[in-house]
Write a sequence for this structure.
């Protein structure tokens, strides 16, 4: 017979598994990937694995993405910021909900970090730090997480899946169906008004001279 503690653990595991559905399947693997190693398929000088193929779940290089296996796949370009992997905010917004994640400026480009940055430092003031790892936020009034991985942890730990934060892009719900009377009224076309034609006057014959 299953004990109460074991039953609670099973229920908790089921809840976590259900919440994983609410984030892209590739995201967890992406956050664990290693980048900027030499590409084994194209061992050229300064050729690094600085891209990620979402479809294949692989770290790839600039030559890999031009080949048929990846040519039409979704590719993320990875950058380096204070020795950590970051990705363009504009690009990432196409795939996940990036709201409340602190962006950073890297070579005149706004980026977000895959994992917490080392230079952020920790603080005891919860209002000025990341809600998950307590690293310092530069704009705590606007953001609550220092990295993508911290927001993912927040999503998986919340009790109600219908409330923020979200990591998957939320699609607006469809509009409610119209009442039967209103629906019938909209479907019935209005009768077209016939254009009134003026009656011609009595023709007059030209006089004979």
């Amino acid at each position: 017979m299953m004990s109460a503690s074991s039953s609670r653990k099973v229920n908790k595991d089921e809840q976590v598994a259900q919440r994983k559905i609410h984030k892209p399947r590739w995201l967890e693997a992406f956050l664990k990937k290693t980048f900027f190693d030499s590409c084994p398929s194209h061992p050229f000088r300064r050729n690094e694995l600085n891209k990620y193929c979402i479809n294949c779940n692989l770290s790839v290089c600039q030559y890999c993405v031009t080949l048929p296996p990846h040519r039409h796949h979704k590719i993320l370009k990875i950058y380096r910021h204070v020795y950590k992997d970051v990705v363009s905010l504009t690009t990432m917004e196409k795939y996940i909900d990036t709201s409340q994640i602190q962006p950073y400026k890297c070579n005149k480009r706004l980026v977000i970090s895959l994992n917490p940055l080392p230079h952020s430092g920790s603080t005891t003031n919860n209002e000025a730090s990341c809600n998950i790892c307590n690293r310092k936020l530069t704009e705590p009034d606007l953001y609550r997480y220092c990295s993508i991985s911290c927001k993912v942890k927040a999503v998986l730990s919340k009790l109600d899946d219908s409330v923020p934060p979200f990591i998957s892009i939320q699609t607006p719900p469809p509009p409610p169906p119209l009442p039967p009377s209103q629906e019938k009224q909209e479907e019935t076309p209005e009768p077209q008004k016939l254009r009134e034609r003026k009656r011609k006057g009595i023709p007059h014959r030209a006089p004979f001279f």
Notes: The first strand starts at residue 51 and ends at 53. The helical segments are 4-19, 27-32, 89-92, 148-157, 180-187. Strands lie at 51-53, 58-60, 75-81, 84-88, 104-106, 109-113. The CA atoms of residues 51 and 77 lie 5 Å apart.
